[in-house]
Amino acid sequence: MTAAVNSRRMIHQGRVFQVVTENVTLSNGITVDMDLVNHPGASAIVPLAENNHVILLRQYRHAIGGYLWEIPAGTLNQGENPLACARRELAEETGFGAKSWRKLGELIPVPGYSNERIHLYLACDLEKAKSDPDADEILEVHSVAWEDAMNMILDGRIQDAKTISSLLMADRVPNPADKM
């Protein structure tokens, strides 16, 4: 099933994404206006630390008016490879690099109105790196026991969709030695 785009109008060009309205004719013959967010994509990382701990961020998110528990993540720069983005974001946000990387998969967080695709990675064998968060990032870095992170999902302390999905996908990897 596809849709024919009859017209497209840019509503807003932001720093990260654009908002457009497209007039489309769906395959069932219905014509409708759709507001869409065009996003360049992102990478998100589950950083597995020693002693079966995961590095989580407690990050301020203005859109929800408070803090969320999240894994490190960031937007792809134009032409940037998703793994290169993951490596950059892990260092910038946590002060860690990783020797071993494994792609866990991809997710599309809000397909009803956005084309954003998030590439999910597991990072192991962490080593110190230079932390350099963006000026608009207010975050705290925490090392959390894996079991505690799973419980934070179940009791509602972790509500971020990419974090929940990534942690649950990483949890399916049999053991840390097999994660790489």
Task: Walk me through what this model shows.
The chain is 18% helix and 46% strand. The chain is of the alpha+beta class. The model has no long low-confidence stretch (mean pLDDT 94). The radius of gyration is 18 Å and the shape is elongated. The termini are far apart. The chain has two domains: 3-38, no CATH class; 42-179, Nucleoside Triphosphate Pyrophosphohydrolase (Alpha-Beta Complex). It has three helices and ten strands; from the N terminus they run E-E-E-E-E-E-E-H-E-E-E-H-H.
Brief account:
This protein has 180 residues and is α+β, with helices and mostly antiparallel strands. Helices cover 18% and strands 46% of the residues. The chain is elongated, with a radius of gyration of 18 Å.
